[in-house]
Design goal:
single chain; alpha+beta; seven-stranded mixed β-sheet; four-stranded antiparallel β-sheet; 9 helices; 11 strands; 42% helix; globular; binds (3R)-3-hydroxy-3-methyl-5-(phosphonooxy)pentanoic acid
């Protein structure tokens, strides 16, 4: 049996603008993960079992652009495995789907690692990351690549599309509470909607993206020097710009307001938006009661994560 696991992630700053070349910051969330087990099967075929998405099928019955099928086909093509071995592939995940926590990229990375190691086709992290980026295009259309990068390397990442990967230092650990609206919203749609609006008024949108990029750069400095008040204010500014970009939602805004009332140093939506998760920066000893107040305000779930 060959096993692999990959974490979730949150985008701290810069979602959407990152698709247009501005910097963004993201960190892994190891409390949630996708896990893949590959075993040799007795019966011919490649049997994929992913109970979380109600999938139990033989590879050849899946559409070729299905992200899981695409990982397997492309990996076998690259490694020149022939004939295909008989395999059972079991995929489970505790990362909520379509909620901004990187579930698709985590499944891709864990599956690629487990399968490549099972068929003795060694891949470097760089290779896995590039491979996962191609698969992300099936999930997201025009992804920036930030999800696959932070999930492959499991490190805080300062990300600019097309540039060498930089990690950033965390001056002092800080605590983020993640609140889930419970609404699943495909990133592909919000990214496509932003593109349509950008095409209509590029000057306006480029200027918003510039502001977001500036915030991401200031946030990196604040994180490196442990200036939490400043970091919180930057989260609020980033959220206001995401609202202007039309990617927030009433449910996200409600949780962000509740976060402010409950004493967050800053709060914003995270990821593709329109649903999914929001994040709040809190004093670490306040995290538990804070998470409770998000649930009282309607969050379906919360996670507390320490960024270090
Ligand atoms: O919804 P998520 O967590 O997959 O994040 C998407 C982030 C975007 O900037 C909206 C898209 C991207 O590819 O970077």
């Amino acid at each position: 049996m060959t096993k692999s696991s990959a974490p979730g992630k949150i985008i701290l700053f810069g979602e959407h603008a990152v698709v247009y070349g501005r910097p963004a910051l993201a960190v892994p969330v190891t409390q949630v993960h996708a896990d893949v087990n590959v075993t040799n099967a007795d019966a011919a075929g490649i049997w994929v079992q992913a109970p979380d998405i109600y999938l139990h099928a033989e590879l050849n019955t899946l559409p070729s652009d299905h992200p899981i099928a695409a990982v397997i086909h492309n990996l076998f093509f690259l490694s020149r495995v022939s004939p295909f071995p008989a395999l059972n592939i079991k995929i489970t995940s505790t990362i909520p789907v379509a909620s901004g926590l990187g579930s698709g990229a985590a499944v891709t990375v864990a599956l690629t690692r487990a399968l490549s190691s099972h068929i003795n086709y060694p891949m470097t992290d760089e290779h896995i990351n590039a491979f996962a980026y191609e698969i992300e295009k099936l999930h997201h259309g025009t992804p920036s690549g930030i999800d696959n990068t932070v999930i492959t390397y499991v490190k805080p990442v300062y990300f600019i599309k097309g540039q060498a990967i930089e990690t950033f230092k965390v001056g002092q650990p800080f605590t983020i509470v993640i609140g889930d609206t419970g609404i699943s919203a495909p990133t592909k749609e919000s990214v496509a909607d932003v593109r349509k609006l950008w095409e209509v008024d590029k000057a306006k949108w480029e200027s918003m993206f510039d502001k977001v990029g500036g915030i991401a750069n200031e946030a990196r400095n604040a994180i490196e020097s442990g200036k939490w008040k400043e970091l919180g204010a930057l989260m609020n500014q980033n959220h206001a710009l995401l609202q202007e970009m039309t990617v927030s939602s009433p449910e996200l805004d409600k949780l962000v307001s509740a976060a402010h009332k409950a004493g967050a140093l800053g709060a914003k939506m995270s990821g593709g938006g329109r649903g999914g998760n929001m994040i709040a920066l809190v004093e670490s000893d306040q995290a538990e009661p804070f998470a409770k107040s998000l649930i009282e305000a309607g969050a379906q779930n919360t996670l507390i994560t320490q960024v270090s």
